[in-house]
Amino acid sequence: MSGDNSFVVVANRLPVDLVTHPDGREEWSPSPGGLVAALSPVLEEHQGCWVGWPGVSDAAPEPFRNEAGVLLHPVKLTEADFEGFYEGFSNATLWPLYHDLIVEPVYNNDWWDAYREVNLKFADEVAEVAAEGATVWVQDYQLQLLPGILRQLRPDLKIGFFLHIPFPSPDLFRQLPWREEIIRGLLGADLIGLHLPSYVENFLNLTRQVSGHTGSHTGQPDELQVSGEPKVREIGAHITAADGRRVGVAAFPISIDLSSVRQPAVEEITQLREKIGSPHTVMLGVDRLDYTKGILQRLLAFEELLESGALDPAEVVLLQIATPSRERIEQYRVARSQVEEAVGRINGRFATIGRPVVHYLHKSVPKSELSVYYATADVMLVTAFKDGMNLVAKEYVALHGDGSGALVLSEFAGASQELDEAYLCNPFDLESLKRAINTAVQALAQNPESAQDRMRELHEQVRTHDVHLWASSFEDCMAGFSGEAVHTPSGDTPGGSSGRVAGKVSRD
Ligand code: ADP
Ligand code: F6P
């Protein structure tokens, strides 16, 4: 455990946002997204330092330690940085490109300049705070140049990089006018982590294709080994960067902190059910309001099932809890208005006075409240068109260790690789979505034992693959790369029967 800045995480966002109330009072509130949910417990365990943006432009609060003992080090972004780096290059260029062009990416030179400038800014902050020889773990697509810049500024650091979103196929990535710079930036790391083996393969294929430009060289994947637990094939490979360093690339499926999951009291669940009209079936969607999440498709499928009589509006309720996200970006505005129009239309058609069929919240809710929604829901709908992992699916499963409930899960969410006992669907095909929802509802009603077996199996997968395993696998693998003795908490030999990723990447 550090506490001395020997373990530094750098992410675009801090785990808290600075909120200014109309009366001028300032308050820190939890910031959105899966990255924060996953990394918070890891940082707490390390008592580490977290470098990131405080969620509002032009604010530069002093570093402070939060109540969990994590040192938060805010990075100031100007309004111009916010527009060019965050809204522009990160979320209107990279986000759609890495999510398989669900909307069209915009390529804009000024945004690229802003992205570079802000990556330099983050690098200066990290170079300033990280202890000699510290481990620095760079997070996500907003900071892909950071490993390369840090490598130059602070060659003493051990640098890891983890991408929380999908890594696209080389054909898509190669559209990016600044592709070589991004690859070079990433290759500054000692270890690059991605959620899934398929993303690793995309990255390796890409570096093969553009190696002439980046000076890198990709070896053959060292051995595509299947671990003791076959749900996700763990693969590792190495690339030789332009400066001759060996860079590891491997799959580490992210997860949740099961120990922090609070099972609500039975009364809380009963109260919620009563509040929404005591329906026979409660369905639930929980997402950032993002066009990648397939919220509109899920509403359309629900509407058609009501229309056809497959679902009875007197017996079913859908709760949709949507966190506001990236609200000034055009495609997010469009997604929100489409969702809200559909909610209004469905209620207009199928609700009765005092009894909506869709309850829609456009806000972030506390974790304790969220767990009541999860525990109450009979059917969870995760219908993303593309999602790096999707922690919501795992959070739902975590609350159903008793075998209750059913998970409808998009086959395009990374989580489907592990949670393959869910009712899988193709959200691009409304019939497939409807079929999966129907099957889940029918299974609960007619074949509860089989539904329970499936949920118990899902729960076992999440229970045995939590975020602490994710973090320690990554850290062990990093240690292996920097030539230090690899240590696993269980004492297993890396690469042995423990199934850890460490040791799967060649170190010779
Ligand atoms: P992403 O990182 O793209 O937002 P994930 O599903 O991986 O998607 O993670 C979302 C995280 O945000 C989860 O931890 C989930 O509990 C949380 N979350 C989503 N919607 C809400 C909401 N309305 N209120 C509070 N937390 C939310
Ligand atoms: O995991 C994807 C991710 O984009 C994170 O990088 C990010 O912190 C989170 O979702 C929420 O998005 P934003 O920071 O843009 O609100």
TrEMBL record:
<keyword id="KW-0808">Transferase</keyword>
<dbReference type="GO" id="GO:0003825">
    <property type="term" value="F:alpha,alpha-trehalose-phosphate synthase (UDP-forming) activity"/>
</dbReference>
<dbReference type="InterPro" id="IPR001830">
    <property type="entry name" value="Glyco_trans_20"/>
</dbReference>
<dbReference type="Pfam" id="PF00982">
    <property type="entry name" value="Glyco_transf_20"/>
</dbReference>
<dbReference type="GO" id="GO:0047260">
    <property type="term" value="F:alpha,alpha-trehalose-phosphate synthase (GDP-forming) activity"/>
</dbReference>
<dbReference type="GO" id="GO:0004805">
    <property type="term" value="F:trehalose-phosphatase activity"/>
</dbReference>
<feature type="region of interest" description="Disordered">
    <location>
        <begin position="485"/>
        <end position="508"/>
    </location>
</feature>
<dbReference type="GO" id="GO:0005829">
    <property type="term" value="C:cytosol"/>
</dbReference>
<keyword id="KW-0328">Glycosyltransferase</keyword>
<comment type="similarity">
    <text>Belongs to the glycosyltransferase 20 family.</text>
</comment>
<protein>
    <recommendedName>
        <fullName>alpha,alpha-trehalose-phosphate synthase (ADP-forming)</fullName>
        <ecNumber>2.4.1.347</ecNumber>
    </recommendedName>
</protein>
<dbReference type="GO" id="GO:0005992">
    <property type="term" value="P:trehalose biosynthetic process"/>
</dbReference>
